[in-house]
Amino acid sequence: MPSSSHSADSLKTEMSPAYGTGTLSDVMPTALAALGVPGADGGLQPIRGELEGVKRVAVLLLDGFGYHLLGQAAQASATIGDIQGGHIGTLIPITATVPSSTPISLASLATGQTPGRHGIIGFTVRVPDTGDLVTHIRWDGSPDPETWQPVPTSFELASADGVVCTVVSNGSFRDTGLTRAIYRGADWFPAATPAEVAAETISALSRGERTLVYAYLPDVDTVGHFHGIGSTQWLDAVATVAETIDDILTGLPPDAALLVTADHGMVNTTEKLLVDEHPDLHRGVESIGGDGRMRYLYTAPGAREDVADTWKSAVAGRAEILRREEAVERGWFGPVVTESNLRRIGDLVVVCRDTFAIVGVEGEPQHLKRLIGQHGGLTAAEMAIPLWAYRNG
């Protein structure tokens, strides 16, 4: 297993989301404000100078590319080194939203809203009215995406003001429930490889007099899951996505800006609790949601305290267990959690510490037990993400 590239501090330190001043949910409102969309009020002041006067904005999201990985990533790319060193553009640290997993983060970015408002508030959550579990990444369209996530997307707001909006991503994602929930209002340009993403992003930037492009690359996250951050394969993936940045910069129109960010960081896990090997962990539990680093436990009526005691014994200090109300009071999901979205959170929330993960949950793919790199928790290694802004000309 590759050694972790994180400092001890980034694994030991819990980081709260900086809603309103520096999270993923603040990125698109800042971009829309730069494009002159009425009502848009971006809170990311440090990058406003890079966006002044632009008519075209591309937002490139690198899945799994945490802020605390920049130092090691710089070994694989001179461009990343220049970005980290402050030689080109403006780099600032921001935070993921909570949980620090892909569907929650993508929804927060695409809507400009906090999880408590948009409702995609966990990797897997229970549907309150039916008791069914919905895994947002593998969402087949039930529950209905438009009602499950009802807030307007940034693309709907922008297109209503005449901004031409495009999503550049793998065509296999085009008709998923998650796409229907968060990318409404944008056209879709299919692109499967990093080179295709760069080419289609440049092409999309030429559309209309004002343009917003969102592009997505999963490569660093995928390789980190299976091979670990810091592995040879991970460094190769970093080098490839850095080439994508180079290609976009080469073709960036003179009135355009590029924003590069991530949805979360990652931790190389070294300890795992296999739920399927502990029958006692199922007593009083109707279903288990979330993901390996932040679990949601939906308990039977009257069983919550007994379940909490059993799980506290099993995690043995390697995770914190909170009631739903406590997690909400800490502001993890934003300043407002609507009543319907509140019911989607587990009765108990289990937050893993350090390099610990909880896997082996019934109904989840078996390969999840073997993943090295994981995320979803509140360590700085997972929560801190980069936002880099570059204005051409």
TrEMBL record:
GO terms for molecular function: hydrolase activity. It holds the Pfam family Phosphodiest. This is Alkaline phosphatase family protein.
